[in-house]
Each structure stands twice: as C-alpha cells, then as structure tokens.
Specification:
This protein has 236 residues and is α/β, with parallel strands linked by helices. The protein has eight helices and nine strands.
Length: 236
C-alpha cells in the first residue's frame, strides 16, 4: 500500500530545529525524541467504551472514501480499522514534533511566530478542506495560547464543512501534570487506552473555555469518562 507523504516523512529526516528564537530551517525536523514524561512511569493499558468515538463514527456513517487525520501518530491498529471502513488515514505524531520544535520547556517557547509557523508546516501542512474528520485525541491541552489558537485555526481550514473532530481534555483542575495516552481503536465505540507517563499541560480547560476555543465551529458536544477525560465532538 502506498503510504501517505506525512507517514513517509515520519520515517525520514534527521535534522532538528535550532535552539535559537528564529524559525528553523525548512525541511523535516526528524523523529528522535519522544514527548517528555515523568521518570519511572510505567505504561498501563485499559479498554473502555467511548461515547465520543461512537459519535465520531456516527458523523461519517454510511459514507465511504473519506479522508481522516489522526494526530496521535501512526499505529497499525488505527490504520487497519479506518481503512477497513473504506477510508483513507493520514497520521501525524503531534506531541513528538511539539517536543522537537519547542524543546523540553515547551510552553515558554510557544509564542515565537517563526516556530509556530514551522510547527504548523510539519504537522498540519494540508490543503484547505482536505479532511472529513480529525482524531485530535488529547494533544491540544499541551499547547500554549498562541500556538493553540494557530492550530485550531489551521484545523478549521483543513476540514470540510459538516466534518467532525474528536478531542479529549482532562477534567481535573487540580492536576499540574496529566497522563499522556496513546489511543487504539477497538470498535466503533471502544478504545484501548495506553498511559505512557505524564507531562505538564499548558492550561486547564473547563466546558466554558472549550466552547470559547471552538466558538467559530458549528457545535461542541461533551462526554465525561471514568478517567475524568472530557470527550468533545466538534462539528464544523
């Protein structure tokens, strides 16, 4: 099977952006360092129902040949599930590129316009209206305000009207660090959730702030899980 260009890029590239404040040079930043994690945190895996995932697939039901974007990185399980439904899947390792672009102290560097533009070019460099759905997962809560605004604006451009996005946000406002998850699709309404350590989130979002964040979209629907994750379905 011919891999999409973003997936091929995932397997290429050795250089990383410079440490200075300017925009990194053009080209692929590489894929070397994983997102920052707490030392000694072991992976834990569970499978649970997901109302948000069920709603996402309801949005694309009875249609074939759609184009879906997964921001959690390329996994064979998700690729197989989406392609077996007759759709095409693009994958981006959003958190890994975030770490490579902005460094270990990510949130303090995320207001630099050159780096923001570089990051968007590495992760969301797609044509307007290219996608019929986006599996955002939990990546947005690790973005500082300037970068978050730019990413949400770009997402709105690359999805078609009447499309859906699935996004997760931790609901506990007392946590300084939050679990980092990998998500594997088990069924239309079930996810395998793999905790891969913890990392500091940029800010806490409640329902009202999330409605403001996606205020230019058609609607936002919330579901709360047993892991105290807010699952959002954002309709374009």
């Amino acid at each position: 099977m011919l891999l999409p260009e973003p997936l091929r890029n995932f397997l290429r590239g050795q250089s990383s952006p410079p440490a200075g404040g300017g925009a990194p040079p053009p080209g692929n930043p590489g894929r070397r360092q994983p997102p920052s994690r707490q030392p000694g945190s072991a992976n834990t895996t569970s499978t649970r129902p997901s109302r948000g995932l069920e709603e996402f697939f309801s949005c694309i039901r009875d249609r074939a040949g759609l184009t879906i974007l997964d921001l959690g990185g390329a996994t064979q399980q998700n690729i197989d599930f989406i392609t077996n439904l007759g759709h095409r899947l693009y994958s981006e390792n959003f958190l890994q590129v975030l770490h490579e672009t902005f460094g270990s102290d990510e949130t303090t560097n995320q207001s630099n316009p050159g780096r923001i533009e570089y990051f968007l070019g590495q992760t969301l460099n797609y044509a307007d209206g290219q996608f019929d759905g986006v599996l955002v997962w939990d990546v947005l809560e690790h973005l500082g305000p300037a970068l978050l605004a730019a990413v949400v604006d770009r997402l709105q451009k690359i999805v078609r009207p009447k499309s859906c996005m699935l996004a997760f946000f931790h609901a506990d406002d007392k946590l300084e660090t939050v679990p980092v998850y990998a998500f594997r699709i088990e069924d239309m309404n079930a996810l395998q959730v793999i905790q891969q350590g913890e990392r500091r989130r940029a800010e806490f979002f409640n329902n009202r702030s999330l409605e403001r964040l996606f205020g230019r979209f058609e609607s936002v629907k919330f579901f709360l899980t047993r892991e105290r994750l807010r699952e959002l379905i954002v309709k374009v």
